[in-house]
Amino acid sequence: MVFEDESSEETSSLPYMHSTSSTDRLNQVRQVPFSVEDPDYQGLELETMSPCEKHGKASERLVAFEGTDTGRRFLACAEPPLRYRALPFLTLRNLACIFQQWASSSALGLREQAQMAKRDAESEKLKQNYEVLLNLTRAQATIIQNLKLKHITDKQLLSEAKMNLELKNAELTKSEEKLTQDKLELKFQVADLLKGKEKHGEEMVQLELQFAELMKAEEKLKEKIKGIQAILEK
């Protein structure tokens, strides 16, 4: 594994190379540290002759993200999982870019957390509004049900009252019919009484006439008796 040297310039075309022997290089072999993606430094190193000392293949460009080496570019074996140093240390030229990406990632995470918190708050508010609406709907349904029950009860009471009124009206009609019949019978009785009274008057007249005739007959009889007595006295 090889790191860039801090003394290299941005415009340099070749990295600075330490003069170490092959034996020293093999003694410097160690496991590759954790790395991060850098769009400006990735893929295989084909511009410089820095093959892997074990496999003899092109080295891979990586950016360290571990300990004091964080942000430094290095070359490592492209054969996972074991990667070895291929060249001496080189200087990282865009450490600021790595930290900027790191800060951007952190800021993005904070923004995502803020957005998630905002979405959670909106979701909680929507949930509360839904619960309020659900409670209102339930209350409205209860009121409607109570009104329906009250309407049914009132309708039943009205029907019973109407039935009772019809029964009373029928009874009153029967009473009126009976009263009319009694009144008619009373008229007939009065007419009969009037007829009886008229007949009685006629009978009284006849009796008076008969009494007058009897009185006349009695006077005639008295005159006859007086005539007979007068004859007898002579």
TrEMBL record:
<keyword id="KW-0862">Zinc</keyword>
<dbReference type="InterPro" id="IPR010666">
    <property type="entry name" value="Znf_GRF"/>
</dbReference>
<feature type="compositionally biased region" description="Polar residues">
    <location>
        <begin position="10"/>
        <end position="22"/>
    </location>
</feature>
<keyword id="KW-0479">Metal-binding</keyword>
<feature type="coiled-coil region">
    <location>
        <begin position="155"/>
        <end position="234"/>
    </location>
</feature>
<keyword id="KW-0863">Zinc-finger</keyword>
<keyword id="KW-0175">Coiled coil</keyword>
<dbReference type="GO" id="GO:0008270">
    <property type="term" value="F:zinc ion binding"/>
</dbReference>
<feature type="domain" description="GRF-type">
    <location>
        <begin position="52"/>
        <end position="106"/>
    </location>
</feature>
<protein>
    <recommendedName>
        <fullName>GRF-type domain-containing protein</fullName>
    </recommendedName>
</protein>
<feature type="region of interest" description="Disordered">
    <location>
        <begin position="1"/>
        <end position="22"/>
    </location>
</feature>
